[in-house]
Automatic annotation (TrEMBL):
Transmembrane segments: none
Family: Belongs to the asparaginase 1 family.
SMART domains: Asparaginase
Leading EC class: hydrolase
Domain L-asparaginase N-terminal residues, every copy: 6-199
Domain Asparaginase/glutaminase C-terminal stretches: 218-327
Any GO molecular function: glutamin-(asparagin-)ase activity
Protein name (database record): L-asparaginase, type II
Source organism (scientific name): Paraburkholderia phytofirmans (strain DSM 17436 / LMG 22146 / PsJN) (Burkholderia phytofirmans)
Residues of the active site: 15, 95
Source organism, top-level taxon: Bacteria
Pfam families: Asparaginase (PF00710), Asparaginase_C (PF17763)
Annotated substrate binding sites: 62, 95-96
Length: 330
């Protein structure tokens, strides 16, 4: 019999740490109140999967997470992964921004050891809560050798998603997580089954290491609609290094917003056209002459993933061509 893996479970809050008044409260409850020891205590059989050690790093809803939280989580996970007596890390997390934290870790951790971010849509106190099974599945994934080298994973609703693609796409249903090209695999009866691997570079194959990141540049997001006023663009770009412009359709820009966005680019703000459709590609020099305006485009990254990627890219370069290449590679 092979020795059990050593897994550290980091608690950060969220619905998985939530508590409702009654079991009928599937959507009304106090968020981030249960400690990670209490959450793990509800699945004693998880001890059969791995040797578990728990630590409480944060205790807050993930809607509050800013760049400082991302750095704190990344640094702690990196410290743990560097230890010989740690085989993998599971992070319990609110589901609201799980896709951003996971993508940040996917791009900045320098290890092949499994890292799994997990949350739940219903608190442990609710009927048919997904908290216990999601956490159990996340531990099963983190423990399994086939999860090595896949970057950061998000486990929910019996599915294993790559951090690059996963997005919370429903506000209350258990089946809330989607990857546009499908999950990497399933978890069943405490074991992962993989059918695909991440195609884009991550972890050991990126130029960003959490251990050398001290602070992160400011990148903002603006969501476009026909009545958006030029003043909003100048206000949001006043002290930003980058702007993800969430345009209509193929990242399109209303004619009265072209000048303010060109002005921002002239002031050195990196303007990236993205799409508010939720999926698909924004074609460079397609809907707008990006080359002439000094703008960038996402490849298929949704706005919140594009913000993470541009934030990291700007820690190393201001060169427009180099920044554009980053969107094609990660
Ligand atoms: N406030 C919660 C969060 O941490 C709600 C969502 C959840 O965890 O399901 O994101």
């Amino acid at each position: 019999m092979t020795a059990k893996a050593n897994i550290v479970v980091i608690g950060t809050g969220g619905t998985i740490a939530g508590q409702g008044k009654a079991s009928v409260n599937t959507s009304t409850y106090m968020c981030s109140v249960l400690g990670i020891d209490e959450i793990l205590g509800s699945i004693p059989h998880a001890g059969e999967l791995a040797n578990l050690r728990a630590e409480q790093l944060l205790q807050t809803g993930s809607e509050n997470f800013n760049n400082t939280h991302l750095l704190a989580i990344g640094n702690r996970v990196a410290e743990l992964l560097a230890r010989n007596d740690v085989d993998g890390v599971v992070i319990t997390h609110g589901t609201d921004t799980i896709e951003e934290t996971a993508y940040f870790l996917h791009l900045t951790l320098k290890s092949a050891k499994p890292v799994v971010v997990v949350g739940s849509m219903r608190p442990p106190s609710a009927m048919s809560s997904d908290a216990a099974l999601n956490l159990y599945d996340a531990l099963a994934v983190a423990t399994h050798p086939s999860s090595r080298g896949l970057g950061t994973l998000v486990v929910a609703n019996n599915e294993i998603h790559t951090a690059r693609d996963v997005v919370k796409s429903n506000s209350f249903k258990l089946d809330a997580f989607r990857s546009p090209y499908g999950a990497l695999g399933y978890v069943i009866e405490g074991a992962p089954r993989y059918y695909r691997r991440p195609a884009r570079a991550h972890t050991l194959d990126t130029p960003w290491s959490i251990t050398t990141l001290r602070s992160l540049p400011k990148v903002d997001i603006v969501y476009a609609y026909g009545a958006l006023e030029p003043g909003a663009i100048s206000a949001i770009t006043a002290n930003a290094r980058g702007l993800i412009y969430v345009g209509t359709g193929n990242g399109n820009v209303a004619s009265h917003l072209i000048d303010p966005l060109r002005d921002a680019a002239r002031r050195g703000v990196h303007v990236v056209r993205a799409s508010r459709t939720g999926s698909g590609i924004v074609l460079h020099n397609g809907a707008q002459p990006d080359h002439e305006y000094g703008w960038l485009t996402v490849d298929d990254q949704i706005p919140q993933k594009a913000r993470i990627l541009l934030t990291l890219a700007l820690t190393q370069t201001d060169d427009t061509a180099a920044l554009q290449a980053v969107f094609e590679r990660y």
